[in-house]
Queue: 2 jobs
Job 1
Amino acid sequence: MGSPTRKPIQFTSRLTADAYAKGILDHDRVLLSRAITLVESRLPSDQLLSEELIQKILPHSGKSIRIGITGIPGVGKSTFIEAFGKHLTSIGKKLAVLAIDPSSQRTKGSILGDKTRMDELSRDDNAFIRPTSAANTLGGVAHKTREAILLCEAAGFDVIIVETVGVGQSEIAVRSMVDFFLLLLIGGAGDELQGIKKGIMEMADGVVITKADGDHKKQANQAKADYQHALHLFPVTESRWTPKVLVSSAVEKIGLKETWEMIEAYKAFTTTSGFFELQRANQNKNWFHSSIEERIKEEITKHKALAEKIKKAEIQIAQGVISPGAASREIVENFIQLLGKQ
Amino acid sequence: MGSPTRKPIQFTSRLTADAYAKGILDHDRVLLSRAITLVESRLPSDQLLSEELIQKILPHSGKSIRIGITGIPGVGKSTFIEAFGKHLTSIGKKLAVLAIDPSSQRTKGSILGDKTRMDELSRDDNAFIRPTSAANTLGGVAHKTREAILLCEAAGFDVIIVETVGVGQSEIAVRSMVDFFLLLLIGGAGDELQGIKKGIMEMADGVVITKADGDHKKQANQAKADYQHALHLFPVTESRWTPKVLVSSAVEKIGLKETWEMIEAYKAFTTTSGFFELQRANQNKNWFHSSIEERIKEEITKHKALAEKIKKAEIQIAQGVISPGAASREIVENFIQLLGKQ
């Protein structure tokens, strides 16, 4: 909402933390929306207010299943999420869909088109769709999305989908904030066209081959068999859950029920073993530590001279003039001196 | 070498940076050893001397192929490395073998047994074997290993093997400092016995099925076919190199020549595309930034009160009493205040 050097235009006035909290706990979607806008704001005053709000609703958070969904552009992610979402609301679930799209940094605003991508679902009373607003770093976007998850849970949503468009490191960020990570693949596209980054497949708790309709059914089932075989060769996961491969068709409404049943089975399996809670606890701990790193990085980049030195050092390192170890020592010493003078 | 609170016993006196550098550039293995001990030292004075030394030899570094090798205990890593190493020296290569073993942190000293694991190779004039000495964090160990690589290269070694025992996050650390990452697997052991962590398989540029001798040959070849098929389904790598699967037997001397030829083919392929240099440049840049993070973490943990606060916050986060975002803000504000008072 405006650059930090200019007085921003505020389209809505800020309420008190109590007012936001009350609205959220009353399941008021308008207030939920405004609260998410608040947590996304980069104004220091908004950040303090946001923190107060999160603290108030924290005891009411956590009661959902958090699902991450990724796949390359063209795999039919929106189509799948819409069909899957409609299934979920039809069986009584309250679904929130959040999107991590680092490319929105360039447009410095929400992807307004998102709602039209999932037209029918966005009109469903039991579904709430929210694109992520801009932030400067992936770390910043991830932080705000985590807080949006907490707000949605406090507002009564019991299934949270976080979708990512598969840019940069966003899958790793999504994986670190969800319980179940679902990978969508195209069947029969040929391997080179998948374009998925290394490591993503091994991160998945489930794989869905999309567009298994009409002429594509055979290819989709072949792909399912191939991936099932491949996953069988993978190492045992920490959760000890065996990732499953399903086929789906949004058009023919195939695989949607099965996808939800797979996720429920995962939840039951990992709750019994204790892994479900352990994973969440580890995720929170990692969020804490990476948040510390993020804030320190922000602190460093506030000091223009230091930020310049870092860029200079990167060039010298690339030229083989200075070793990374020596360069890092100088930067950190500088940083400490700078803070000493404040 | 002794804890920082006690005056350490020094078994060897320190030379000047020039003296170490001269010895290394003269390919003096004794001085190379002492130089590696120097970079591993945690004494601040040694760290400054070490930095000076690295700066001097930096222009002479880089002229090697860096190979990371991992596999679970029992796969026959030492046996493979010894046989592979003997092949390399027999074709005129000068080989240095470094080990990342975070468990050595517990013994707070080198793994003296390492040399006897690769008995024959350790007696080879053209091979140099060095276990990693203790450090407090994996980040610390990784940093020192990177510097040891530079020293070995300046000392004339043209193949550097970094081996890891597959504990914790060590594979990721090794991957970030090598050109080629080789994964050793047992053939026909059944998937659950592999015990490899998720993501490692997708990180590999090559896979070698070990112990393909006698009765195991058939299993090994079946495993090779299985993994080749699975790798075919993986996403295209950034390097665009197709990972290869080989079988090997240290006893029957199978697959050693082929492993080297695969690595040479990788080097040729990625040099032509420019990826080889690009990967090294990115690794250096990441080393720089993670080194900054490491140093700041060290700075934080120096302040006992702050380190206590962090532990306390972790407990409160686990109990759901405070959000990670709020906790991290407090910690960073405290840190900045503390530095302001120095």
Job 2
Amino acid sequence: MKIRSITATLLALCISSAWAATDEPIQPITPAKITKPAMVELGKKLFFDPRLSKSGFISCNSCHNLSMGGSDNLKTSIGDHWHQGPINAPTVLNSSMSLAQFWDGRAADLKAQAGGPIANPGEMGFTHALVVEMLESIPAYQVEFKQVFGTDKIDIDKVTTAIAEFEKTLVTPNARFDKWLKGDKKAITTYELAGYKLFKDSGCVACHNGPDVGGNSFQKMGLVEAYKTTNPAEGRMGVTGKDADRFKFKVPSLRNVELTYPYFHDGAANTLSEAVTTMGRVQLGKQFTPEETAKIVAFLKTLTGDQPNFKLPILPPSSDTTPRPTPFN
Amino acid sequence: MKIRSITATLLALCISSAWAATDEPIQPITPAKITKPAMVELGKKLFFDPRLSKSGFISCNSCHNLSMGGSDNLKTSIGDHWHQGPINAPTVLNSSMSLAQFWDGRAADLKAQAGGPIANPGEMGFTHALVVEMLESIPAYQVEFKQVFGTDKIDIDKVTTAIAEFEKTLVTPNARFDKWLKGDKKAITTYELAGYKLFKDSGCVACHNGPDVGGNSFQKMGLVEAYKTTNPAEGRMGVTGKDADRFKFKVPSLRNVELTYPYFHDGAANTLSEAVTTMGRVQLGKQFTPEETAKIVAFLKTLTGDQPNFKLPILPPSSDTTPRPTPFN
């Protein structure tokens, strides 16, 4: 009885291990390892603090809303004075896995990215110097920067370092698809699996692969057929200056794609069905049937992982000397 | 030894009990008793959901930011299309204790209040009908309304009922001053206690009393000396039509007042010192010395209680049929 039980266990392990989908083009997400918890906590506060904007109203979380898949679910974002943003806000979830940041990859990493929106007149509309002045006027922030960086001299480099360290924790493991990849055959349905097969067989996986199901290359939007849009963004060319890079954008991650509508750099696709149909046509020269599209969409919805799981941060109050925001100037 | 120990304990209890400040004009806050947890969870999601606004960008939490004392720390709020609000956003913390809602008390309770900003063109800019249509298009919300209300027919009454139920949990017990009231003599310093004594002796406590340290009466702003402001709000008169109610406003709670700057209905006082000085002059005919003001401010800072302590809510995604927000129309 005992031996039979051990044999059964070993057999089950072998089957499970043999089956685990290790040779798939998509890999499971590894949970974040937090090595600097105090820096993460500081970064979290900064991420949620609207005093990093001129108006005192817009925080990183306004457009990368962690209650909504790390995005704002708008075609393009709303910035200072209700400025209409030029491009769809990418999700911050799993963004640490990207080869570079922004649609055109102009920032090498999350730290380089974080300073951008703060100083962009159409986004947070502030300056790095004023952010530092604001933070230095708040005793509780001074204490926290000192604890984290060993000095109370705050500068924008420390601010963006802390924000990036927090953002690195925003990974979403344990999607049903990841469970399937790890050997749990029942984690996705036969229909969803058929969608995955079609996703691979149709060529989607050529760009959307790796643990982030994308995020690791720049590709031309409209490879087979020109992509029609009123959005003037020209993508990667703006960074490299090369004509060959016109309309090349970073391939977005499909992780949590169910939550990050609308889709594409111009936010033109409102639904996953629209996005899949358009991608099939302009990138692969395929006309997916409604049934095929539905299958792929069903697969894509298995990519939703564990969402951010932490307490709402409580921000330290301004002091009497903290400059007050000027939203209406 | 045993008897001595029991005697000492009894004695300590008697002293503690005898000392507990039961006859003070301010009473400790009672922690919220959550009797409808599912409704609170639904209300929390709705409170954080920017899809309750036309733009998809502004939630209840935008102006009653629970990371910042339940306020936006702006003179007046930013609304749809960057509309400049007419009056300072009061904190939502402990608002269930108020005799009525809004500065002029035009809403009887939190439920009546919650519907206001949603449909105000200068705030969330939406309509109740469109909010209901949006919510009904989201399967996870449908399920949750059904679980909470026993029917999947969503209406604005249920929406505001749930939001109010969540808001009722936003009380902030365990302020240092409350600990002092309950008998912990060391919970506040001698200096802070002197500030409290001055607060009482000067007459501040005539209006700022009860567990909410305010919130339980309407009083004229500028009782002794006319209050100068460019803000056209006339307060309670707009509700009652009585000339005697001109410039009467709900006395704000002083709970967490350290966090809810700037002060007054017009947000004109940037600091607690300014607020105390002005109040002394226009309400009490007193010219507080800087030392007196500092003492009262020190006391006021002992009124900061436990801040909201819950996980960031994760919102259910829109479905393909959910109408998309139109921030730029």
